[in-house]
Structures are given as C-alpha cells and as structure tokens.
Amino acid sequence: MEKPLFPGENLLRAESLSLPASIAKRRRVSPFIRLFREHSGKLLCPSFWMLAWANGCPYHCSYCYLQGTFKGETDPIVFSNLKDMLREVSRWLAYPGETRLLNTGELCDSLAITDVVMKLLIPLFGRQSRHKLLLLTKSDRVDGLLKLPHNGQTIISFSLNPPEVSRLYEPDAPPPGKRLEAARKCVRAGYRLRIRVDPMIPVEGWRKAYSRLAEEIAELKPERVTLGCLRLYPSVKAFSQRSKAVFQYVSERTPDGRFRPPEKTRIEMYQLMLSKLQGLEVGICKELPSIHEALKPSPLCNCIP
Asked: What is the spatial distance between Cα 83 and Cα 105, in angstroms, rounded to a whole number?
C-alpha cells in the first residue's frame, strides 16, 4: 500500500488530480524540485528553491526570458504525474531546519495555465507552519484560491508594470488594473502579498507612469516589493517574434551576458520607486553589485522567505 502524501490525503478526490483536457501535458521524469543558483557570479542573486510543475507561459511577453530558455517553444505544458510531484513536495516539506520557500513561478506563470496545481499545493502547505509556498503571476484568476485553507503559508506575488508598458510588451496578459484588483482579493482572503515590478522599461514618460504605479502599490501595503530593470539575453531576440521593439531600450551588455539599459538609467528608475515606496521593504532582483552599493536596498527579494 502506498504511503499517504500527508495526513488527510484521502480528502483529495481523484478528480482533483486531473488536468483539463485542453492543457498540453506530459510526464516529468527528472525531479520536480531543485535549488536555483545564479551561475554567472556577476550578480547579487540568492539561491532559491523552485518547483518545475510546468514549462512556458501563454502570455508571451516581449521581454520574457522563457522564450530563450525554451528556444521558441511557445506552447506551455503541464507535467501530468501530479501524485509524483506531491510526494516530492511532501518530502521537501519534511525538512526540519530553517524556513524555506518554494517558488512555483520560475519556469511558468503560477496561475496563467491552470489553477489546478496551486489548489493542490496551497492546502498541502497549509497543513504545516514552517515552509512557504510562493506563487508568481500576472493572472487575475484568483477566485478559486480565495477559500482554500492556506494557513498563512502561501505568498502570492503579482508581477506589475504600468499600463503604458503593459499595453506595448505584455498584450496577452490581464491589464495591470485587473491584477491589482486580484491582489486586493487575495489580501482580503488573508494571503501574504508581495509585488514584483520587473522588468521596468524606460518608455517615454516612464517617470510619471511608474510614479502612478508606485502609489497604487503603496496602497496595498505588500510585505515586500522587488524591483528589476529590463535585461535581455541574446537568445530572447533570436527566438521571440515580439522582442525586436523592446531591444531599443538596451545599450549596455553587463558582465553576466545580458543586455540592459544604461546603469545611470537603471539607478534613476530604482531611485524613483524607492522614493515612492518609503516605509515598505524593497529589494532589487538580479542586479550588479555596483547598483546595490549605490542604492543600498533591502537584501531580501521576492524568491526567499
């Protein structure tokens, strides 16, 4: 007889382990969980745990690194052996040491393809009080999560950009206003909230656009905000059908191999947001040590507890 995933496994009905027929799926052979490390050695980026439950994203944002990661394979897939995944997560949760966080949004959007997997994971994390689950999303489809027994162990992080940026480079994703309303619903349901403003893009009028966004974020009072500026690997341009226009903003290749806006511009964008988000914990994602030295943001960012 198989050992249960966790006490009360029988509460999971068989149909809850089924993915919608419309979703492309295949069985995963390699482990679902791994420790992500920034291998360039040129950036400040802490290691974090990631869950590979799916690959790809239906939003196809112009700047998205997944287009390079998956070499232009644009159709997302979900791994079908969900019981195997849940057993692996259960073993990960049994770790008795310091609090860890499991990121479900590194190789896909946590909610854009389906909410079925998160509906399984959130109650599982809610049955313990040590380790945290992180959802990272541009989706506004959160209604199915609002009544789940999360026990404060799930953090929902919304990726945001101003409408002026989203219309140009995130056209398939829900508008920022809908994401903000989804964030408010999650707060009312007792979820811990984080916000990620990444990648910031210096479009015409960016100061006014990002100032307005910062004001809306401040009203939400998230526990943490993480900022990042546009950074593009050459492979994004090679495999994306939409990336040509967004490359107009980058002119500097940093030691990690990415193309970025000039350092002066990045610092100005970060300074604006830091000034507007005073009183909140604000970190910076995957940036050079010189940026951190100039701005001295929080050492904590989106993907760590």
From this structure: 20
- The Cα 211–Cα 204 span in angstroms is 13
The yes-or-no verdict on residue 279 having pLDDT over 60 is yes
C-alpha pair distances (Å), 148 with each of 125, 159, 186, 262: 11, 22, 11, 44
How many C-alpha atoms does 214 have within 13 Å on its Cβ side? 22
Q: Specify the pairing of strand 252-253 against strand 259-260.
A: antiparallel
d(CA 121, CA 53): 11
Where in the chain are the domains?
Answer: 42-295
Q: Does the reported pTM lie above 0.90?
A: yes
> For domain 42-295, which CATH number applies: 1.10.10.10, 3.30.70.260, 3.80.30.30, 3.40.50.2300?
3.80.30.30
The residue type at 141 = R
DSSP 132-167: EEEEEES----GGGTTS--TT-EEEEEE---HHHHH
Place of tokens 């947001």: 273
Unique residue bearing structure tokens 């966080």: 101
- CA 203, CA 105: separation in Å to the nearest integer? 26
- % the chain with pLDDT above 90: 80
Residue 187, classed as helix, strand or coil, is helix
Tokens read off for 105: 């949004």
Q: What is the pLDDT of residues 185-227, one digit of tens each?
A: 999 999 999 999 999 999 999 999 999 999 999 999 999 999 9
For residue 66, CA distances in Å to 174, 196, 238, 261, 284 come to 19, 17, 12, 20, 20
Integer CA distances (angstroms), 201 to 108, 119, 162, 188, in order = 21, 33, 10, 31
